[in-house]
Write a structure and sequence with these properties.
The longest helix is centred in the C-terminal third of the chain and has 38 residues. This protein is mainly alpha-helical. Helix 1 packs antiparallel against helix 2, helix 1 packs parallel to helix 3 and helix 2 runs antiparallel to helix 3. It is elongated and about 55 Å long. It has one domain. The N and C termini lie far apart (46 Å). The protein contains 3 helices and no strands.
Length: 90
């Protein structure tokens, strides 16, 4: 479960750094990755005693990613709409 949480965090954070104009799509993808990271992190924290702190860290980072993406959603929709309309005009 820790591997899945780590991959979800990596893909979620890396998607936010792509500069292709589709910021709303990346924010929605980040929310899905954050949910996966929190779920897998909490499951990992419950399973094993020696690696419990790793699960809590993964869940915390997933929570931060989710909040960040949810805050960005309203403004990113208008940015993506403007970007797509400008690219269609060209």
């Amino acid at each position: 479960m820790r591997v899945i949480a780590l991959l979800a965090l990596l893909f979620g954070f890396l998607a936010q750094m792509l500069l292709d104009g589709q910021v709303f799509t990346h924010a929605v993808f980040g929310v899905f990755c954050a949910v996966a990271a929190v779920g897998c992190g909490l499951t990992s924290a419950r399973e094993g005693r020696p690696n419990r702190w790793e699960g809590w860290i993964m869940a915390g980072l997933g929570f931060v990613l989710g909040i960040w993406c949810l805050v960005m959603l309203p403004s990113s929709y208008s940015q993506q709409k403007n970007f797509n309309s400008r690219s269609e005009q060209r």
